[in-house]
Structure formats: structure tokens, C-alpha cells
Amino acid sequence: MKIEERRASEFMNRCDEGHVLLASLMLIFLLGVAGMTSLYLAGQDGPGISAMKEDNVAQQLADGAADVVVSWFHDPTVTPTSVAGLLVKRQGDLTSGPSFFDVAGRSQFVGTADRPDILLDAANQADNQTLNDSPSGFSNALGGLGRILKLKVYGPLQPGLLSTVEVTATTVDHRPVTRTVQLQLGALSIPAVRSAVQVGQTLGAMQVGSESPVMVHWGDQRVLGDLAVQRVEDLALKSTGAPVTGQSYREMPSAQDRWTEYWIGGTVSVIAPPPGQGTNPPLPENVHQQQYPTPGVRLDQWDYDQLKKIALRWGTYYRLDPVGRLHPQGATDSDQGIAPAEALKSQVIGDHRGLVFIDTVDGQAPRADNMGTLVLDTDYFEGLLVVQGHVVWRPRAAGKSVPALSPSQPGTESLGARVPVQLSGIHVNGLLYAAGAIRTERSIRLYGAMMAGQSVTSIGPGIGIEVWYNADLAQGLFRGVPVVYRAPGTWLAKY
After folding, report:
1. Between 20 and 30 A from 144 (CA), which of 153, 196, 211, 445?
2. How many CB atoms lie within 10 A of CB 423?
3. What is the pLDDT of residues 125-162, one digit of tens each?
4. Are 186 and 73 in contact (CB under 8 A)?
5. What's the confidence (pLDDT) of residue 416?
6. Alpha-carbon span 456 to 204, nearest angstrom
């Protein structure tokens, strides 16, 4: 019996070993099949992955080209001459200023995909030059990876938007892929600024040392009340032969400018008139007084609620506290706030701050009892500074040298008619708006425009504000602000 039991046990052990061997062989077979399958699938998926990569590149090229189109709305210097006239604001009126929309809110772009407002087709040699071979075209955005075949700009597909942009791009790889993307553009409703200086009250007073501290180049000066100057020569004479430079009027033999007009609601007074000419000496022909109430001094209206909404979404929002410190949106009442110099200083030319909205102390529309005072002591600010209060201007240094373009001559709108000028000592490059008063404690230079709801004063004689007007503001072009933007949720890869 023991022998039979031992033989049975050996038989069972051999059976177990056989099962293990069979399982091992099956596992090796299955792994071999899986490996062969993986190699086969890898060989099959290689072209598919490559095609997906090319497809993504083509979409990105078309998307980058759409961004270039958006930039055309903001900077005339990069806009192709063939389309520049179609991208400027062609609606609006004398009261509201230029706009992309009519009074009913309809966009000036009315075309369709079949009959677009703007069509550039690379099959046309001139269009191909604009699309693919021009420094102001798309070559930098494409990075040599592809070409733009077609660009269309036509009416918006959704009410309230500005336009539809459709771009077809192709890669330049050995297996080129062509794709078309479509997106829609919206536009911010920031009113154009059509004068170099706008003052809502009287500018200057009839006593020595209290004359107007403001001097204007390249644009209009508009004052709702009276204007008082020290001498008749302080009113720039309009002359087509005036030099176009960055010189101060104090550096010129006589104050002359090609564009300056004075529109004064009340009267113009001269503190020290020429000998023998009495208290009402003759004024230059470009000085227009007693304009209010008729025909009226046209001051651009910047609505508090509208600008606040734009700043909360697209810009920077601060609340000004009673001691002049700034509190960002969402900050608690217990925080210490930020010093204006820390929040507002632009480090270098091109460091745009965009739209900076500084609210009243209580966050309500400005009144006589809720406007704080902002001490603007930055050396250089670039952007749109909208202060719902008073401003004391006290820069610490001499400012920066900035490139500028003069306005075009009357009747000439081409970009080439604008003279490039280097302006030195600029403290603000853009716009300074104050709902209240502006007071300067040292001589200031500004390139852009200045607007004050109340008056503009200085601490004494010889301390003034000199403004060179940026004519782009007349078209509502504000650097660093998305005047035209991609409308969220409208991007579509068509084919």
C-alpha cells in the first residue's frame, strides 16, 4: 500500500508541473501576440499622429493670424494700407464721437461669408504680399511654419458684436494641412477723446501767478468757463508753417502750432496785455471765446458706470481711501492699501498699465463729498488713468523720452502724413482724467490728452503742464486697452 501511495503522489506532482509548464507557455504566447499587435498598431498610428500634429499646427497658424487682425484695430502703424480705411470707426456723430456702431447698435461691418467686407486671397499677388511677405503681415506670427491662404472680415453672427474673422491657413511641411478657423470680435465702448485738453470749469484767474498753467501742442484746448493767460503770446498761434518738433513753447521764439484751436465757453482774459492795447487786446484767429451755451463747447463725456464696468472686467480697479492710498478690487476695509507710486509706475516705455480706474472713497458716482485726492508722484505712467476724484501731480524725476506721431494735416488721413517726433521728459503717455480738479507742483509733460471735471492749477508761476496730443485718441485707439477683443465662446474650427 505504501508503494502505491508513493506512486500516486509522484503522478500528482508530475501533473502539477505539467499544468505550470502549460500555463507558462500560454503566457509566453499571449505576450508575443500582444507585442506583435503593439508593433502593428504603432506602425499604423504613426501617420495618424503626424496628421493630428499637422492639423493642430494649421489651426494654431490660423488662430495666430486672427490675433494679428485684432492688432490692426489698435495700432495704425501695423495695419496694411489696403484695409486701413475699412477698420477705422465710421459711425457716430459730433456729439458722441466716432463709433463702430450706429445709433441702433448695428455694426459697420455688414458683409457675409460669401460677400465679406474685407477679403484677402493669397491667389492674388497683391493680397499674398500683404498676407505672407509683408513686415506688417503675418510672417512673424506664423514663424515660418505656414502660410495664410485667405482672410475674411464680415458682419457679426451675434447681435451686439463687431465682426466675424475667418482665416484659412496651411502648413508648409512635406504633407501640408489646411484648416479654417472662425471667431467673432467685440468692441469696448470707450468714448474717443477729441481734444488735447478739456476743462469743465474756469482755467486760470485774473491775478499775477494765477494764470492758466496749460500749454497745448497738436490739438485743441476746450474750456467750459473762462480762460486767463499771462500774455497774448501764451496763446499758440495756428500756422501751417509751424515746426513739428518736441520743443516746448518756452524754447521757441514764438508759440506756434499747426493744429491748436482754443474753444472757450466764456471769455479770454490777458493779465499783462501789450502796452497801449487796453484790457481786451486782439486775440489770434484760432481763439474762439463765448462759445457757451451756444454753439457750445464740446467736451467728451466719460460715463462713470460704463467705465467702471469696463475696468472691472478688462482693466485695473482701485478704491481711493481718504488718506490717498489705493485698495484693489476685493480688498477688505482693514487692509493697509497700496501707495500710488507702487501701483501706478510704468518701469519702461511700453509698460502699459491699460485702463486704471480709481474710484471714489465710497464707490459711488463722484460728488463733492466723496472725492478723495490722488497724489501722482510716479516718474512715468503709461496707460489710461481715470481718477474719480482730485489729482495732485508731483513727479519725482524728469520723465522719459518717448516716440510720438504728430496728427495728419487737415484733409490728409494717411499714416505717412504724420511726422515722427521724439518727446523728452514725458511723465504720462496716454490719458489723465480727473472727475475733480488737477493741481501740479512741478512742471509736467504729457503725450496723449488730459481731462478735468473741474479746474487745472499749479503752485505758482513757471510751473505748468505741457500737452502733446495723440491723434489716435480721436479714433478711440487706446494703447494697452483691448478696444477690440475676441468674443468669448465664438471660436470655431470650420474645416
Report:
1. 153
2. 21
3. 999 988 888 765 666 555 567 788 999 999 999 999 99
4. no
5. 67
6. 8
Please give the Cα distance from 373 to 4 (Å, whole number). Answer: 111
Amino acid at 321: D
Residue type, 437: A
State the first-to-last Cα distance of the chain, in angstroms, to the nearest integer.
Answer: 85
* Residue 223: φ, ψ to 5°: -130, 125
pTM of the full structure: 0.83
- Give the three cell numbers for residue 61: 497658424
**CA angle in degrees (0–180, nearest 5) for 100-382-482:** 30
Give the CA radius of gyration of the chain.
33
**Phi, then psi, of 261 in degrees rounded to 5:** -130, 145
Which stretches in the chain have pLDDT values below 50? 1, 8, 11, 15, 20, 22-23, 25, 27, 29-35, 37-42, 44-50
Is the distance from CB of 453 to CB of 436 less than 8 angstroms? Answer: yes
Query: DSSP alpha helices (H): ranges in 345-386?
Result: none
Which tens digit of pLDDT belongs to each residue from 43-65?
A: 544 444 445 555 676 667 777 77
Residue 458: which H helix or E strand, with range?
strand 456-458
373-376 sheet: strands from edge to edge:
373-376, 390-393, 438-440, 456-458
